[in-house]
Amino acid sequence: MDDDTLHSIGDLARLTGLSVKTIRFWSDAGVVPPTDRTPAGYRLYGQDALARLGLVRTLRELGVGLAAIQQVLEREITVAEVASVHAEALDVQIRTLRLRQAVLRAVAGRGSTPEEMELMHKLANLSDQERRRLIHDFIDHAFDGLDVDDAFLATMRNAMPELPEDPAPEQIDAWVELAELVQDADFRAGMRKAAVDQLQARTEVGAPAPEAARLLAELIMERTARARESGIEPTSEEARPVVDELVARSAELSGREDGPEFRSWLLERMEIGNDSRYERYWRLIAVINGWPAPSMGPAVDWLIAALRVGR
C-alpha cells in the first residue's frame, strides 16, 4: 500500500474494526488527528493513523485515559511509565475485587441478612491503616490509664490483623467478627476488669519474670492436655497430682505458699481472667494472619474446674 494514501474515517473503520463513532471521538480528542480534509470538509488520515489507532486501542483496553495516551503519542512520557502507573492501579483494583469476592462467598456461606452483608462489605474494605486504627482504639480504650506491663501492651499492639491479598472466606469472617468484638462495650469492660485485677495481683505478689510466666503457661497447657487425653476429669481423684503440681509452681512463681488461702486467691484470679472472648480475640487474629491458633482456653477451664473442687 502506498504510504501517501489517505483514508476516510470509513476506510479506517474497515481496516481496524473500530467503529466510525469511536475513531471520530478519538480524532476530536486529538490522539488521532486528520492529515488533511476533502474540499467538502471530510477528514482524511495518513498511513500513520493506522499505527496510532492500534496503539490507542491497546492502551484504552488497558484502562489508560486519553490524556495519558496523548502524552505518550507526543513523547512526553513513555509507554513503560504509563504501564507502571496503571499496573499499580490495577493491583489496587484486583485486591478490591478479591475482597468483594471473599465477602460474597462469606455472605453466601453464612446466609447473612442484607444488613449483615452491608456491614461485612464495609469492614472488609477498610484499609490496612483503618484496621490497625480500630484495634489500637480498642487497646487504648481497654487499658488507658492503667499501669499495664509494657511487654503485654507491645504484644497486643504488634499482633495486628493483616488480611492477605487474596483472603479466604474464613479470614473475612474472622475479621468481621473481630471488628465487631473489639467494638463491643461489654468485651472492652471485661478486658479492663481483668487488667485491673492482674495489676492488683501484681501489687500483692509482685510481677513474675516474663520467661517464668511463659514456662508456667506452657506447663499448664502440657499437663492439662495430657490429663484430658487420658480421660482424667478435673473433678476426679486422679486429677489431684496434676493440680498439686501446677498450684505449687504457681505459688512458687507468686512468692507464696500453697494452701487453701492461696488456692482461693489463684482460683479467683483465673476466673476473672478467663473470658472466653479473650481467647476468641487471639483465635480470630490467628485465622486472619494465618498463625497457629492459641489453645490456652481448654487448659485454664480444666484447672479452674479442678480448683473449684477444693473450695
Distance between the termini: 102 Å
What characterizes the major β-sheet?
A: 2 strands, antiparallel
Sequence of strands across the biggest β-sheet = 1-2
Q: What count of helical segments does DSSP give?
A: 15
Q: Name the helicity range.
A: over 70%
Radius of gyration, in angstroms, nearest whole number: 33 Å
Oligomer: single chain
- From the spread of the alpha carbons, the general shape counts as rod-shaped
**Count of individual beta strands:** 2
Low-pLDDT runs = none
Report the average pLDDT across residues.
82
Instruction: Note the beta-strand portion.
Output: under 5%
Order of helices and strands: HHEEHHHHHHHHHHHHH
Structural class: mainly alpha
Secondary-structure blueprint of this entry?
Layout: H1 9-16, H2 20-28, E1 36-37, E2 43-44, H3 48-61, H4 66-73, H5 79-110, H6 114-124, H7 128-143, H8 150-158, H9 169-182, H10 185-205, H11 210-229, H12 240-254, H13 260-273, H14 276-289, H15 296-309
Antiparallel strand pairs: 1-2
Helix pairs in contact: 5-6, 5-9, 6-9, 7-10, 9-14, 11-12, 11-15, 13-15
List keywords for this structure.
2 strands, 311 residues, 15 helices, mainly alpha
General description of the model:
This protein is mostly helical. The protein has 15 helices and 2 strands. It has a two-stranded antiparallel sheet with strand order 1-2. Strand 1 and strand 2 form a beta hairpin. Helix 7 packs across helix 10 and helix 9 runs antiparallel to helix 14. The longest helix has 32 residues.
